[in-house]
Amino acid sequence: MKHGDAKLARTCREMTSDEKRHETAYTKIVGKLFEIDAEKTVLAFADMMSKKISMPIHLMHDGHDPNLFKHYSSVAMQIGVYIAMDYIDILKHLVHTWNVDKLSRLSSQ
To answer: What domain of life does the UniProt record list for this protein's source (predicted)?
Structure first.
């Protein structure tokens, strides 16, 4: 908004609100799963973290550039919009929120 684009500012606000609702729902659902069955949930969490996590935006397509997401991702990282440290911060937040580091009585698996 400070650069004079009211439509872009509104779109960004809507996207931010949607992302916050998604994060809140995901955090609460998985938190409840940890309460119900910590063993299976920690295994699922570990499995998910061992794989490359991709957001739906990786399907972005403009009909011309088959590497559009790769190019977008590269630019986003170069200008600091979303970098690897952001991903690490998210993981730290989830581990702390779900108390993963305090789980006990889990199998060796």
So the answer is: Eukaryota
Cα(98)–Cα(31) distance, integer angstroms: 6
Query: Could you say which DSSP state residue 58 is in?
Result: G
Other beta carbons less than 10 A from residue 97's beta carbon:
13
Q: Is the dihedral of CA 98, 100, 104, 107 positive or negative?
A: positive
DSSP letter for 59, please.
G
83: left (phi over 0), alpha (psi -120 to 50) or beta: beta
Rounded CA-CA distance 100/79 in Å is: 32
Label residue 15 exposed, middle or buried (CB < 10 Å: 0-12, 13-18, 19+). exposed
